[in-house]
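Minutes, structural biology subgroup

Action item carried over from last meeting: produce the structure token record for Trafficking protein particle complex subunit 2-like protein (Branchiostoma floridae). EB confirmed the sequence was re-checked against the source entry. Recorded below for completeness.
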Amino acid sequence: MTGQRLSKMAVCVAVISKENYPLYIQTIPTEDDLKFHYTVHTSLDVVEEKINNVGKTTNDLRELYLGLLYPTEDYKVYGYVTNTKIKFVVVVESSNTALRDNEIRTMFRKLHNAYTDMVCNPFYTPGDRITSRVFEKVVNGMMLQDS
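Output recorded by EB:
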């Protein structure tokens, strides 16, 4: 490795319960962590709207990836929902043009798999805040990547 060039993939990753309270939120170190919490919270309305629109067109939720929920000046907010209505929200920098839609989908698949593994732990109570080190390691891997 000639130089340490790290490009940020995600700047915020959140897991939201079906009742819309946060189970897990991880952000990059910044002075304005609250801004990401607000961004995730405001994205829930868009997630609910997309879920309801999908529910009207089909009997079940086949497409878990909701795509771009909304862009802001600085960030793009993407969403994903499980069949059990657990929501994943990933926020990336708008300036990150190298990140394609299929890479975002891959991030959500990894997140969903890590969440599923964590929920299968007999010591985890569904609905509790996520404190799994293995889950956190997957999220941290999504937040920084060698380029």
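Discussion: Residues 6-146 form a domain with the Beta-Lactamase fold (CATH 3.30.450.70).
Next step: EB to file the record with the rest of the batch.
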